[in-house]
Amino acid sequence: MTADPAKRPEGSRNRDVVFETRGLTKTYLMGDVEIHALQGVDLKLYAGELVVMLGASGSGKSTLLNIMGGLDTASSGTVRYRDQELTNASDKALTLFRRDHVGFVFQFYNLIASLTARENVAIVTEISRDPMLPEEALALVGLKERLDHFPAQLSGGEQQRVAIARAIAKQPAVLLCDEPTGALDSKTGIQVLEALEHINEAMDTTVAIITHNEVIGEMADRVIRLRDGRVENIHVNDKRRPPGELRW
Amino acid sequence: MRTLNRKLLRDLATLKGQAAAIALVIASGVMTLIIAVTTLDALSLTQQRFYEDFHFAEVFADLKRAPESVAGRLRDIPGVNQVETRVKASVRLEVPGFDDPVRGLLLSIPEGREPLLNQLYLREGRLPEPGRAEEVVISDAFAEAHGLRAGDHIEAIIRGRLSTLRVSGTVLSPEYVYQIAPTDLLPDYKRYGILWMNRRALASAYGMEGAFNNVAVSLQSGASEAEVIDHLDRILARYGGIGAHGRDDQHSHRFLHEELKQLRAQAVILPTIFLLVSAFLLNVVMSRIIRTQREQVAVLKAFGYGNLDIALHYGMLTGLIVLLGSALGIGFGAWAASGLAAIYTEYFRFPEMSFRLQGWVVLLAVAVAAGAAMLGTLRAVWGAVRLPPAEGMRPEPPARFRRGWLERSALRHWLDQPARIILRNLARHPLKSSLSVLGIAMSLGLLVMGAYQLNAVDHMIDTQYRKVMRMDLHLTFSDPTPVRVHSELRHQPGVLAVETYRSVPVRLLAGHREYRTSILGMDEQPYLRQLLDGRQRPQRLPPEGLLLTDYLAQDLGLRVGDAVRVEIQEGHRQTVTVPLVGLVDEPLGVGAYMQRPALNRLMREGPAVTGAWLMIDSGQERALFDRLWDLPGVASIGMISEAERNIREYMDDTILMFALVFVLLATSIAFAVVYNNARIAFAERSRELATLQVLGYSRGEVSWILVGEILLLTLVALPFGWLIGTGFAWALNQAFSMDMFRVPLVITPGAYGFATAVVLTASVAAAVLVVRRLHRLDKVAVLKAVE
């Protein structure tokens, strides 16, 4: 079913709003070309939900995620995290916001090559307020046997799971994942999605996953479709399918 | 340990080649400053301590002969503290087992005890016992040169009488730190010795009983040296005084002072150039290394690290490299400085070297190196943290390429794709390319400067001994001698040519400036001792007027045509005015020259000479020496080849030693710069190069893109480097001009060639290293990873 994106969808659990954007636009220059990545996005994310944002390459989904996560700033419009206005927040405020509330998972893992799996997680837990142990986080993603391996000694799926462990170890309220399975084969991709679902359920973390893979939408509470920098529609799933049942 | 610190150490391990190269640059900069300043400090400090502890006198005067009672009048001069009258005698010495002529200077000391002024440091043995007429102490340099020890004997001819002297000890004196014979530029310890003897014994041997012919004076604090000198001159004039003088004109002090002046110039100019160059290179290299870490900076930021944390992290990375470089620089600098200071003790005879590493030097050197490195680091970190993390993690947007002059020029027809890639890469980052070129050019400049020193000193000595001093022997007479000595000498065995000269001690005055020297009265067209003009051609002496070494004329502010006031320090001691009629270009020493008849007229005397230059047949040297030795009135025999050998040795040991150290450092800097440039180019291009290999380009073709870029940058840098090096050499040359010698600004093609060869070798070596790295590159991994 399709709903007005600004309204609270029926069927979603009665939860607080975590993120709210209004009229969000983003324009940037790529070489000589001006790119309108977002052209007025109104959106809400709720506590504890698992959202999948779908869209083709260039639809603006990564830009939206980056702005919500405080990795980038909007050209106009507002974005709010619970009571905190992020729109014109200072660099320092955004740094603290990222440190305390958000975990990121990137398509290319972005692990630090000179650190082991355990250390890649520790580098984040060391600056967090209430982190779990790096070993614990790695156990949650099924990597407790690979603690002291360097990224170059891990497979792509393992590296992405280290990235997830790194993102969740600080026990963030929100987990933002940009194409977390984009660089992985489907079997490994599903393991990664299972890890994300596990975090969502076990820790009640709000999880937003960006992908261009339609199938992944079936594991979400809601599926938000983006096209040409706008929200095209929002679909609420009656029932989330476990990642293990997904095939692509 | 914090994980971030662990990352730091591992990054450092990964960057080890580059880090080591940067540490080398830092070490070189720090080392130059420490070597130069510490050597200078050691010499100044040692000099100061020796002068103070052994009561080095402040005013000195030579005279013919004055009764000891005059000493009381000298003591009454206002401002005078202590007065030490002495007997001083030039003697000829014979050392068993050594055939060359040896000159000696005999000085009196009070019976069996230390004098009040110019006290002796006893290295070995004891002072002559009171009443022992045959006992002497000798300068330790002379003792060392001949292997003489307490108890050994030497012969001396004092006023024509041969006496056998017994060495009771070896000593050092603040008055003879630099022990050279009056006509020499450099010490020759084998052929010139200084001896001290009890006053009574020397006075009786030299006909000076109850009299003195030399006096040393110390001043009360605040007293005017000039006034005391005036007073002394007035009192001593009637006793044949030839003008008292302060330490500035005291032989040993003057040379030491000149040497310190030259060291000071070196201590300022060389480290400044080195530190500035290394600071520039550090800034450039560090900022480029950090820029390659752009993505990591973005990741750290994404996870909540603040700008300060990140700046600290990279600051520490740089700090560790600076620390390593500084430690190396301080360690090797102190080691080299103590080595150099020890070499100087060979020429300057001090009891011991006071060597210390001053805190401020270390601090300054480290601060400059650290400041420059940090500036480069923070500039790059600032560039990285200023970007929103989302942007930092994206590959940099493709650079803006446009059809430039390259596409429009005729060149395009014969440039293949790799060549175009090289040229466009350089053209699209004009600033980066210029900085690389400048970096290589600067290190080349340092090399040119170093090589210039090495070559120019040789050139200078060659000019002096091939063009100026063409004689084999230099004789001086104890008194003015009739000119017939010329034919007498001409008929000695093995003598091929003779020229005689008259030397008169004078004070040259020009405005408030003055200079003590001697006027040499020479033949109209001297052949054995030439006077070169500005274009290095021998010149003829005009019948009237004075010629001066160009450096001296400049120092006195005189131009050709100006009148020079000349205070003659001998005979009638009149003051006359003589026109300056020409300049002499000579690299070693300074002097004043006239035609001999003109000088004789000035002296109101007949045609007299005080010395001669001889060209001889070396096969008959021994026989000639024996004959000369027996000629009355010959005070000294100097061998020019020995003097040349001495000066070459001295230059090799001091200036050239410095220059060699600096050339080594410049070489390491050149290599470090070229290698770092190449490594960074490799890091920036690896993705592009891997792509080309995947597209089917051969290893060789892909390597060429990288090697071509390195070589092109180096080639472009060459002319700039020659220019910069010429500028550095000029700066050094300006700072280096002094009385004792002036290294000409002659940069031989060899110097440019050597510097260029070093830089090209470094480039080729760096190219080979990165190409090997390129061949080990995992193409697939590089292509998969984000930049």
Helix content of chain A: 25-40%
Q: Order the strands across the largest sheet of chain A as they lie in space.
A: 6-7-8-3-9-10
CATH class of the domain at 47-71 and 95-239 in chain A: Alpha Beta
Q: Helix/strand/pairing class of chain A, anyone?
A: alpha/beta
Approximately how much beta-strand content do the residues of chain B carry? 15-25%
Q: Describe the biggest sheet of chain B? A: 6 strands, mixed, barrel
Q: Could you give the distance between the termini of chain B?
A: 29 Å
Largest sheet of chain A: 6 strands, mixed
Number of strands of chain A: 10
> Alpha-carbon distance between the termini of chain A?
23 Å
Q: Tally the helices of chain B: what do you get?
A: 23
Q: Classify the fold: give the CATH topology of the domain at 47-71 and 95-239 in chain A.
A: Rossmann fold
Which architecture name of the domain at 47-71 and 95-239 in chain A does CATH use? 3-Layer(aba) Sandwich
Number of strands of chain B: 20
Rounded radius of gyration of chain B (Å): 33 Å
Name the quaternary structure. Answer: heterodimer
How large is the share of residues in beta strands of chain A?
Answer: 25-35%
- Overall geometric form of chain A: globular
Uncertain runs of chain A:
1-12
Structural class of the secondary elements of chain B? alpha+beta
Q: What report would you give on this structure?
A:
The complex is a heterodimer of chains A (248) and B (787). Chain A has 248 residues and is of the alpha/beta class. Chain A has a domain at 47-71 and 95-239: P-loop containing nucleotide triphosphate hydrolases (Rossmann fold, 3-Layer(aba) Sandwich), CATH 3.40.50. Chain A contains six helices and ten strands, in the order E-E-E-H-E-E-H-E-H-H-H-E-H-E-E-E. Chain A has helices at 61-68, 91-101, 117-125, 134-140, 156-168, 186-203, and strands at residues 17-30, 33-46, 50-54, 76-81, 84-85, 102-105, 174-178, 206-211, 222-227, 230-236. In chain A, the strands form two sheets. Chain A has a six-stranded mixed sheet with strand order 6-7-8-3-9-10, sandwiched between helices. In chain A, strands 2-1-4-5 form a four-stranded antiparallel sheet, covered by helices on one side. In chain A, strand 7, helix 6 (186-203) and strand 8 (206-211) form a beta-alpha-beta unit. In chain A, helix 4 packs across helix 5. Chain A is globular. Chain B is α+β, with helices and mostly antiparallel strands and 787 residues long. Chain B contains 23 helices and 20 strands. In chain B, a hairpin with a 6-residue loop joins strand 16 (563-568) and strand 17.
